[in-house]
Design a protein that fits this description.
Layout (H helix, E strand, L loop, with lengths): L9 H9 L7 H11 L4 E4 L6 H15 L5 E4 L3 H17 L6 E3 L5 H8 L5 E4 L1 H9 L3 E2 L5 E4 L2 H6 L3 H9 L6 E6 L4 H10 L4 E4 L10 E7 L5 H11 L4 E4 L3 H13 L4 E4 L5 H13 L4 E4 L14 E4 L6 H8 L9 E7 L4 H10 L8 E2 L14 H8 L5 H10 L10 E2 L9 H9 L25
Parallel strand pairs: 1-7, 1-8, 2-4, 2-6, 3-4, 5-16, 6-7, 9-14, 9-15, 10-12, 10-13, 11-12, 13-14
Helix pairs in contact: 2-3, 3-4, 6-8, 11-15
């Protein structure tokens, strides 16, 4: 099948041609025709299979057909929100729609409120920041016609189930919901029964299967020897390397340890400021940063063309997280390697992960009893890599927390306009057709997002 056979609007087809995208991926081929029917959809596919276009193209097609249809896309992380926004931009530009509005934490709310007042057709948001805008008054989403839950399983893994349910309370019952996920655990199945109506379900690979293009290795080692083995791995692999740790503190320690050895490394986790995270990701994409140390929060939000090696410095708690971690390598037909450090205490947990995978990792690579320790560069580096260095990103944490409320929005209610933005109608609806400041807080008599007046909220 070719994209031309899907009956997409010419503007969207033109962007695909310009990008050199001719043939849909398996999940796109299965999901797009079903989503174009207007039905609710559950789509399961592993990481890196093109899920963003699989929901974006039918979503935008419906928005072309219905000038009052707007879309809300919920994602678990800031990085994934930024990635989705970038994928959408050329298509929205071709359709002459306004820029997608990005609502994420770690940055001031003020510019986001200003962006909402420009009446965007598409909002990409993390659950917490979206609720900040909804509950503080500047945004109403009660007439959204399309809802996308991207990486839904990860949202639940990160504890966002209460926030997702809260968001659902503010959405209309009559909407199309597109849910995309890499796995379909029990708690997610329960959520789909609550909020999706008679959904069509499509799947490309069994959620438990892993990529056969990835050579998976395990190394039995002591906790105090992991850094030595990490340095050995860096000698063997010369391209981009992604290291996962279980905690933010451990990520800091490993990252500063590598920097002390002269490795071009950076760190990304939830306590780093948005600016720090973006700088680290951009450096990793361009090759300026060779090694990126991350917690699981980054596993779903990183879009890197090719990662040569993924290292599980700490084993993940859940088998699904293992799949998501190693899914950063071996993408688009390229070969990749995943190396997992396993301590004696973790042998049982590692066997559990292996037993749940349809593609078992290759045999364990046992470490020598006393691996050689490379000469340390600079005498004072060790202390920084241990306790003191781990505190440096704390400034990022403070910045992140402080920036959350630096610009408190006004209490005036901004309705998400459904007017067709073509020919400048979007900006006009923001100040003219809605009545401007004379409009009551409950919204206009005819809601731009749905049919009829929205319910009054207090």
């Amino acid at each position: 099948m070719k994209f031309l056979e899907l009956g997409l609007p010419e503007a969207l087809a033109g962007v695909l041609r310009d990008l050199g995208i001719v043939t849909p991926t398996p999940i796109q081929e299965k999901a797009i025709p079903q989503a174009l029917l207007g039905r609710d959809l559950i789509a399961s596919a592993k990481t890196g299979t093109g899920k963003t276009l699989a929901f974006s193209l039918p979503m935008l097609t419906r928005m072309v057909e219905d000038p009052k249809a707007n879309a809300l896309i919920l994602v678990p992380t800031r990085e994934l929100a930024d990635q989705v926004q970038k994928v959408l931009q050329p298509f929205l530009k071709a359709l002459k729609f306004s820029e997608p509005c990005l609502l994420i934490g770690g940055v001031s709310m003020g510019p986001q409120v200003a962006a909402l007042r420009r009446r965007p057709r598409v909002i990409v948001a993390t659950p917490g920041r979206l609720l900040d805008h909804v509950q503080n008054g500047p945004l109403r989403i009660d007439s959204a016609k399309i809802l996308v839950l991207d990486e839904a399983d990860r949202m639940l893994d990160m504890g966002f189930a209460p926030q997702v349910r809260n968001v659902m309370k503010h959405l209309p019952k009559e909407r199309q919901t597109l849910l995309f996920t890499a796995t379909l655990p029990t708690d997610l199945k329960k959520l789909t029964k609550e909020f999706l109506k008679d959904p069509i379900q499509v799947s490309v690979d069994p959620p438990s299967a892993t990529n056969t293009d990835i050579e998976q290795k395990s190394l039995v080692t002591g906790q105090d020897q992991k850094n030595n083995h990490l340095l050995d791995a860096l000698k063997e692999f010369q391209e981009s390397i992604l290291i996962f740790t279980r905690t933010k503190r451990r990520a800091d320690k490993v990252g500063f340890f590598l920097k002390d050895y002269g490795v071009a490394a950076d760190i990304i986790h939830g306590d780093r400021s948005q600016g720090q995270r973006q700088k680290a990701l951009e450096g990793f994409r361009t090759g300026r940063v060779k090694v990126l140390v991350a917690t699981d929060i980054a596993a779903r939000g990183i879009d890197i063309p090719q990662v040569e090696l993924v290292v599980n410095y700490d084993l993940p708690e859940a088998r699904e997280d293992y799949v998501h971690r190693i899914g950063r390598t071996g993408r688009a037909g390229a070969k990749g390697t995943a190396l997992s450090f396993v301590t004696d205490e973790e042998r049982g947990h590692w066997e559990y992960i292996e037993g749940k995978l349809k593609t078992s990792p290759s045999g364990p690579v046992r470490s020598p009893q006393k691996p050689p320790r490379p000469p340390r560069a600079g005498g004072g580096g060790g202390g920084r890599a241990g306790g003191g260095g781990g505190r440096k990103p704390g400034a990022g944490s403070a910045a992140s927390g402080g920036a959350r409320r630096t610009s408190r929005p006004a209490k005036t209610v901004e309705r998400w306009s459904g007017a067709d933005p073509g020919g400048g109608a979007a900006s006009g609806s923001g100040s003219g057709s809605g009545g401007g400041s004379s409009r009551p807080a409950a919204g206009p008599k005819r809601g731009g997002w749905g049919q009829g007046a929205p319910k009054k909220r207090r």
